[in-house]
């Protein structure tokens, strides 16, 4: 694996973690030392051939990489437009892209001599991916999860417990992902000496946005090779859902220098952007500082963070990775939003047409691809990041449609 | 000389240590805060730290989080906090007031607008918990333009090079966080604190206050022996929470508690 920041495509972030005006390190003094220690360790081990070999071996043998780049032939024909390929991150061990990053960070934690792992989770995918690698490496694991999300994602909670993790319900604030992140930060600042905090997305203080991106960039590196082998050329567009934005940046990053490749990040429009009940900071928010970095946020006129709404727990976050904020401002990527209803329609569409049940998060990307493909026309190629599988969401889909399972 | 510097100078002359209570503005409702500030001064406060409510107080424990939540139910924003300070100043022109909070509300208002309005209301210093010196150039410039003291935290794991860097941007006083953790957390270790204060004083002549872990007269007295200021937050806010249903009793009760700390500190330092 090449370290992503050595890629010629971009030099960002700068040494203090800035992507233009975004990113940085906005934390209390007690975390400044540990973050610097983490940055140094990360930069050392990512260059270390032994660390790389162990990571590559795990990605292959434990995670099951490379994941296929699947041509959705029936769906393409049905939509009558661009040829649609799905990057099958749903086929990873634990069922989503999250494990690409948790493997990397857990191996790093072991190298740094940390014995305790903590994580925050929204949909539970990152929590499961963290509990999984902690079990495998024999590390103690505590996962913070908003009590509202615990209710929505009961299966994943039980899965984490089976893996030996302690799941702590967070009752403060809106009782969702942002509050779980606050609580994990509080744990970390209190137990810094033996604890490694595995952040699940490309947000948080430097070096997390860069580190998580580098671990997730394997998605885009594989896809770039695969599409050239399968289509003999680069794609015309990439589509990925954006909550914090880790699967999207993982797909986008290796294509950033390919000017002909358009990039679409798809946020959760919830009940609709005009309703105010959504989770789309890039489409409808403004810049601010939260969770250690400057980025686009959902906030009120006083700078208080407001509650977000999405059918998909994994997208229900009021901030977004700072690199996405930068890609938006620079115009390199486009950010759009898809409502709950549109995402659910796409969920059914893919399930019925291709026999692949997508996560509700990924369904947002699929729903946008349904709009984009006919616009682009049949001589074009789209890659959609199918970031996770939908098993965890069956209960939510049934509930919304008034069906008792 | 700033109000904070003047206050520390006169305390030093009198051989006394500063007592700095923290309360969240608007907790449990906006009417309580100004009378409470006066009661704290009467109880022996030398400087008042006023918390600006924030929806996501990442560095605070549950006690201060809940105080923020109570104040936010009344939509206490920066403008409301300035208004409280302005009303406090009508009857108290001398006691310095320091705002303590998180960056985002200030960022949304704009650094210049914030600094000008804060100074005009009678605020003397600002401690922004999640704004380390590395990211603070523009903020410090704005604060200095309006003679606000930027106050900074030093933690147990802050190395010498960083202490030096912090000492260069800070004014007013240095806030030493006595434990690795969040507000309202573990007990403090007085011997370890004393060692760290010596390390900080090697880099600065600014007064050094100690906060986190001070819960009663005994801990306040212990810290007063080694520090220039004793900062007490969660112990006060916890008492406000207990009395939240009878807010009229809060000023007197908290003033009384502070007087206990004051007594214990003075006894410890005049021996």
Q: What key attributes describe this structure?
A:
heterodimer, A: 405 residues, alpha/beta, six-stranded mixed sheet, four-stranded antiparallel sheet, 14 strands, 44% helix, globular, B: 271 residues, nine-stranded parallel sheet, 12 helices
Strand order across the biggest sheet of chain A?
3-4-14-9-10-13
Whole-angstrom Rg of chain B? 17 Å
**What does the overall shape of chain B look like?**
globular
User: Average pLDDT of chain A, to the nearest integer?
Assistant: 95
Number of strand segments of chain B: 9
End-to-end C-alpha gap of chain A: 44 Å
Could you name the ranges of chain B where pLDDT drops below 50 across 5 or more consecutive residues? none
Q: Write out the strand line-up for the largest beta sheet of chain B, numbering strands in chain order.
A: 5-4-3-2-1-9-8-7-6
How large a portion of the residues of chain B is in β-strands, by DSSP E?
A: 5-15%
The tally of helices of chain A reads 16
Write down the overall geometry of chain A. globular
Amino- and carboxy-terminal Cα gap of chain B = 30 Å
- Proportion in helices of chain A: 40-55%
> What would the average pLDDT of chain B be, to the nearest integer?
95
- Biggest interface pair, counts: A-B, 37 and 43 residues
Largest sheet of chain A: 6 strands, mixed
Percent of residues of chain B in helical segments?
Answer: 40-55%
What is the quaternary state of this protein?
A: heterodimer
Beta fraction of chain A: 15-25%
Please identify the structural class of chain A as seen in this structure. alpha/beta
How would you characterize the largest beta sheet of chain B? Answer: 9 strands, parallel
